Amino acid sequence: MFEPLGWWRMSLAEYSSTVGSIFDAVLDEQLSSTALQSVVEYIGASSASYLILNKLTRRVSSVTRWGSFTGNISEYLTYYSKIDPFLAILEKAVCGRLIRLSDRMPQGVLDYDTWYNDYVFKGGACDVLGSKLNESPSHMAILGLHRAIGDTLPFPRNMAALQQLMPILRNAAGLHIGLVDVGYHSAMVHGRIDYSPAGMLFTDADSRIVETNQVAERVLRLGDGLMMRNGRICARRSFETAKLAELIVGATSQNGSSPSAGCLLIGRDGGRPSYVVRVAPVTAGLTRYDLPMAMILISVPDEDRVSERELAELYGLSPAESRLAVAVAFGKRLNELTGEFGLQITTLRTQLSSVLKKCEVERQSDLVRLISNIPVVRLRSSEEELV
């Protein structure tokens, strides 16, 4: 049993250690349980779970857990996640909002719920405090904190500590989802970065490049947006160089403040899609170098998306239908497109219905999955092949 609330006096060192463990887990999934342990002990809970939901397949793709809760992860992935009513509530919530299961589903309802009785309560928890930390068009990160059966003390013990930690958790979850979206695998941190499908490099606090993979080398050599100058990474435009340097300093912070992650767009020549550059903190223990570093991941997500013309040819769509289908497939919502396209929501719904029929799918999620799986081949000049 936890000690009373008055005993929770976390020092700056404990806070910094917790923050460091969270970012370490983003880059090395083997440290995920350790990160959850740090969070649980910092805020005062019995256990915690961290879920990644694939929005395209509507399935939970991974679960990490630490603490007293004993619910079987395999059973959750294969069965209980599909009937989890709390997961459905969190999916629709605003990112970063903390929601208690007991506040949204009265005990009288929970008493008859299969997921709650056969999984949550049977696993040793009587309540859950959850939050959708972050999401992209294709993935969602969710945190769940468990209250142990019989626990009568405040849950969590230190809500102020949790509120203090939420921006860090959201920041790290956003970085994690971004890495998942571009196919990053955590084993690359340990000296195997050439397996990355994206450009990856490491710098010190002064933006000096320490190590790169082959993709990043090609990006720098091409020099159409990012380059190396006097051993440092920089952008062609000075304001982008300044922003990149600021993110690197934040990721390698050693002045008592917590390290941070961030991202920015780097413009390229010739109207090509901008580089999406993600910067994350890397502690000395995660690499073979005995100093804090920043990991920089460079991706061009739009480079390989199917074009509106190709989609129209494949499925017999009109130009307007093809434009709508591509926009929806890459994360745009209909209400966002009314202003962008200058059309009424009813018109967009009619067009979408026609698209679904021509593509022989029933739901919008099926359309997204269909378009994302269309193989794309681009013929490029020898110079363009560098990236």
Strand order of the largest sheet: 2-1-5-4-3
Number of strands: 12
**Please, what is the average pLDDT?**
83
Instruction: Provide the CATH topology of the largest domain.
Output: Beta-Lactamase
Q: Please provide the ordered H/E string of secondary-structure elements.
A: HHEEHHEHHHEEHEEHEEHEEEHHHHH
Number of domains: 3
Q: What structural class do you assign from the helix and strand content? A: alpha+beta
Enumerate the spans where pLDDT stays under 50 for 5 or more consecutive residues: 1-10, 187-191, 377-387
Tally the helices. Answer: 15
Radius of gyration, rounded? 23 Å
Helix content: 25-40%
Largest sheet: 5 strands, antiparallel
Query: Judging from the principal axes of the Cα atoms, what is the shape?
Result: flat
- Could you tell me how far the N terminus lies from the C terminus, measured between alpha carbons in angstroms? 55 Å
According to CATH, the homologous superfamily of the largest domain is Transcription factor LuxR-like, autoinducer-binding domain
CATH class type of the largest domain = Alpha Beta
Architecture per CATH nomenclature, i.e. the level-2 architecture of the largest domain: 2-Layer Sandwich
Portion in strands: 15-25%
